Amino acid sequence: MEIAQDRDRDSDQDRIRESNRIPETAPTNLPAALPLDLKDDLSNPLIIDFEATPDDGVFQIGAVFNDLVFNEKNISNPAPALQRLSRFAQGATYILGHNIIKHDLALAKAHCPDAGILSLIPIDTLVLSPLAFPENPYHRLIKGYKLLSASRNNPVADAKLSMVLFEDQLAAFLLLKESQPGLIAFFAWAFDLPTGTFQGISQLFERLGGEKPHESRARDLFLTLCRARGCATATREIWEEISKSLHRKPELAYLVSWLRVAGGNSVLPGWVLHEFDGIADLVLRLRMACGNDACSFCTQHNNPEHLLNKYFGFNAYRTMPDGRMLQREIVSASLSGRHHLAILATGGGKSICYQ
Fold it and tell me: Which residues does residue 61 pair with via DSSP β-bridges, in sequence order?
């Protein structure tokens, strides 16, 4: 038994040495405009990617750190491999990758709860992508929630792609900081959760120059960011609702990010709608008519007469023999999000209602 244990230790050291022999040839290319202290910290994160089995096993681990790569294949027992990865990553502060919070780190915690990598500050490029690139099509390296990798089951290559994506995200956030500095600060607040799940995300935005605001300031930022882009009544109601459910704060970040480009070529990514299942309702509520004449958004965008004239050139809906404007009633119900069934005779003007 002692001989077998010694062999295991020797094999462990051989694998660590083998990992350390492989040079990493793609240095980081962080934006020059990053604050110097942040640039220093982010210039050398541990970048990881795990390949998993359908039953949540881990059969391959790839990582990049200190200009070296770590690559273990055909893993049958993930715990020792994760311990070796943790030793490989000694000195790292941040751990970076694509979908690592819900996937890679969750697997690491399940297989090796005391793995050293779990103490590193996570930055997840999947979480950041809809904030940096809300337009559709999204970033060239992303399809759905996955990275567009040129090779299959190559976690080292995917780890490198994560860093390329992260560099582009940082560049996008720096531009956003110049055009909408309040948005970066709001992101810092929105991802600061009691659970610490998005600690690295919140910290990143704060260090980018978006000093994390107190709740009252965050409220003002949210109302300002939504102004002229959604119903003012719904905006206030949404804030009151989410501020009482702190775990839902990230929904507000994705909401205001989407609002920046809404009306053009943009939809919220499917994984956001799945992960934050309340956000679809928030989007709908922001665009529904509130019936308050003081709401400038609804007066302009949810006014039946305004829309009729804008899209069809008419000034008024058809008046029925009994004096009712059924078309207007139908359109108003739709704009208000009310369920309804409309039955009109042939030639009664249904097309205008559903178009």
Answer: 50, 72
Rounded to 10 degrees, the C-alpha dihedral 197/198/200/204 comes to: -170
Across the chain, the runs of DSSP E, i.e. the strands, are 46-52, 58-65, 68-72, 94-97, 121-124, 142-143, 146-147
The string over 55-85, giving b where at least 16 C-beta atoms fall within 10 Å of a residue's C-beta and e elsewhere, is eebbbbbbbbbeeebbbbeebeebebbbbbb
The mean pLDDT of 106-131, rounded to a whole number, is 97
**What one-character-per-residue DSSP string does 263-300 give?**
TSS----HHHHHHSTTHHHHHHHHHS----TT-HHHHH
Non-local (6+) Cβ contacts of 280 within 8 A are: 268, 273
The β-bridge relationship of strands 68-72 and 94-97 is unpaired
Residue position matching structure tokens 């501020």? 243
Contact (CB, 8 A) for 286 and 231: yes
CA distance 300 to 89: 56
Give percent of the chain above pLDDT 90.
54
Kindly tell me the sign of the dihedral angle through the C-alpha atoms of 30, 169, 121, 9: negative
What does the pLDDT read at residue 336? 66
CA 97, 102, 104, 109 torsion: positive or negative? positive
Mean pLDDT of the chain: 86
Distance, in Å, from the CA atom of 314 to the CA atom of 291, rounded to the nearest integer, reads 22
Give all domains of the chain, ordered by start, each with its CATH number: 2-179 (3.30.420), 303-354 (no CATH)
Q: What is the pLDDT of residues 318-340, one digit of tens each?
A: 888 887 888 777 777 776 667 87
pLDDT tens by residue, 33-81? 888 888 888 988 999 999 999 999 999 999 999 889 999 999 999 999 9
151 secondary structure, DSSP code: S
> Would you say how long the chain is, in residues?
355
Rounded Cα distance between 187 and 211, Å, is 10
Quick check: 124 and 100 in contact, CB under 8 A?
yes
